[in-house]
Every structure is written in structure tokens, then in C-alpha cells.
Design a protein that fits this description.
about 290 residues; alpha+beta; ten-stranded antiparallel β-sheet; about 35% helix; globular; Tudor_SGF29_rpt1; SGF29; transcription regulation; nucleus
Length: about 290
């Protein structure tokens, strides 16, 4: 059943109320944990029985576990709101009500989408799932309608470029994707084989807990060039050190003596595995150099 605007607004409001309640709960739990931590600190400075010390450590660990669980519940509510809004956006597009978005607004949306991508923080011993950071999708994975992907398409002069696109549908019988260029100035639809579509990460990897889920330094990748909707070949120069930081990448650029431009920041969402195109020497997205004026 289609999600009406009224129902969507109501569901979002319910989740916003849940988030507000959970935030207050997190604040209360943090104050309680601080009390126990202060007590543990004082105990460490005094000569108390080991059994009592163990009890204080246990209480602090329990406080941390409860706080973590509450934070994860709040993050899940945020994810639900994103899903509701995305469903409404897809319905509006299918109904032909998609609004024209100016270039500047589009670039801002691309940036915000990367900044608000859910952060995966693994629990001890938990494996990082596919499509988190640099972890690729499984071979049988099918991107969902509305998901952003990198798509290899032919340009005006038959050159191939990796562009930022959105999944319209997956044609199971043909094993092909129907995608649309997110650039409003293009509005191009493409039917592409599965091998010409790369799903983008659905979660950010946390460098502090899951650094192994990031691309190592000097890895050759494809990255979305800032203020464009095209992916170009690049090299990882610096990894993000915190959950809010981006990669720093070196894009190929023949105008520089060493063949690479100065480091530029690119969000985890838009750094993906490198795949060459037919014209590996061209300046097309993901295959060759990009000029510094791109």
C-alpha cells in the first residue's frame, strides 16, 4: 500500500518523539555512569578489597552496555525516518512529481547524504557487514530501488564514464539495472548489465573500531570528484581517523608533474573499488585523469 504524505508525516513524528525520549534516557544513563566511574576512580586511589573493586568495574561495564544499547535504538529510529522519507521520494518520482533541483542544491544533497550515512560500530567479535566502508557487496546482492550506485554509462562521444545514479528497478529476467542519472541537467535513464553497476556503501565504517574495513593507504580506487557527479580513478592518500572525517585522495591529473593533483577530501560513501573502462587512457570517470578545473 502506498505511503501517503499524511501517514509518512505521522510516522516520522512518532519516531522523532521516540528519539527525544531516548536522548533524555541517554543523558540520564550517562550521569549515572559518571557517578559510578568517579566512585571507581576514588576506589583505585584507596586500598579497598579486590572483590569490591571487581563489583565497581562490573557496574561501570553494565552502565556502558545500557548506554550503548540506548544509543543504538536512537540510531535505528533515525534510520527508519530516512527509509520513510526515501519511500515517499520514490513514490513522488514514480508519480511524475519529482521537482527540478538546481545544481548547487544537488551538490549539497550529495554531501549531506554522505555525512548522514549510518555509522557502523561493531561489537566485540562482530564481523563488519557488506557495503560498510570498503567492504564490497556480496556477488548475488541486488541494490534496492532508490539506492545510489556508480553506473558505467556511455557519453555523447561514446566514451564510458562512471556516474552517480539512482536505481529505478532491477530487471530480473535480463539481470540488468534500470538507473537514472542523479544530475537533473541530464535526467538520463540507462539499462545496464549488473557488472556495470557498483552499489555504494550503505554504512560508514568507524575508524576507531573497524579500521580494517577502510581502504588501505595507496590503494587505487574510484572516487567522486568534489562538486561533480562523476567517479574518477584516484589513490588513497590518507584514511579517516575519526567517524566524521573523510578520506584524502589523489586524483590523476596530467597537468601535475607527478601525475596526481593535490589531496582532496572524499566521503566514505563515494570511495569505491576501482574498475577500468574500455578506454583506459581517456579522461572518462573511473578510467583516466581529471583536470583540476573539473
Amino acid at each position: 500500500m502506498p505511503l501517503t504524505a499524511e501517514n509518512a508525516a505521522q510516522q516520522i513524528q512518532e519516531r522523532l518523539k521516540d528519539i527525544q525520549r531516548l536522548i533524555h534516557q541517554i543523558d540520564d544513563e550517562r550521569r549515572r555512569s559518571e557517578t559510578n566511574i568517579n566512585g571507581l576512580t576514588r576506589a583505585q586511589q584507596s586500598n579497598i578489597p579486590m572483590q569490591k573493586m571487581k563489583g565497581l568495574y562490573k557496574a561501570c561495564l553494565q552502565d556502558a552496555a545500557v548506554e550503548e544499547d540506548t544509543i543504538r535504538k536512537a540510531l535505528e529510529k533515525i534510520h527508519e525516518i530516512r527509509s520513510i522519507r526515501n519511500e515517499r521520494r520514490i513514490q513522488a518520482r514514480n508519480a511524475g512529481n519529482k521537482e527540478a533541483i538546481r545544481r548547487g542544491a544537488l551538490m549539497k544533497m550529495v554531501q549531506i547524504s554522505a555525512q548522514t550515512l549510518p555509522l557502523f560500530v561493531s561489537k566485540p567479535g562482530e564481523k563488519v557487514p557488506p557495503l560498510c566502508g570498503a567492504i564490497p557487496a556480496e556477488s548475488n546482492y541486488i541494490a534496492k530501488v532508490g539506492d545510489n550506485v556508480a553506473a558505467l554509462v556511455k557519453g555523447v562521444e561514446e566514451e564510458e564514464n562512471w556516474i552517480l545514479a539512482e536505481v529505478v528497478s532491477f530487471l530480473h529476467r535480463q539481470n540488468k539495472y534500470d538507473v537514472i542519472d542523479i544530475d537533473e541537467e541530464q535526467k538520463d535513464r540507462h539499462v545496464l548489465s549488473k557488472r556495470k553497476v557498483i552499489p555504494l556503501p550503505l554504512m560508514r565504517a568507524n575508524p576507531e573500531t573497524d579500521g580494517h574495513a577502510l581502504f588501505p593507504k595507496d590503494t587505487v580506487v574510484m572516487a567522486l570528484y568534489p562538486q561533480t557527479t562523476c567517479f574518477y580513478k584516484a589513490i588513497i592518500h590518507r584514511l579517516p581517523q575519526t567517524a566524521t572525517e573523510d578520506y584524502e585522495v589523489l586524483f590523476e591529473d596530467s597537468s601535475y608533474s607527478n601525475g596526481y593533483a593535490e589531496p582532496l577530501p572524499v566521503a566514505q560513501r563515494y570511495v569505491i573499488v576501482y574498475k577500468s573502462t574500455k578506454k583506459s587512457g581517456s579522461s572518462g570517470g573511473g578510467s583516466g585523469s581529471v583536470s583540476s578545473s573539473a
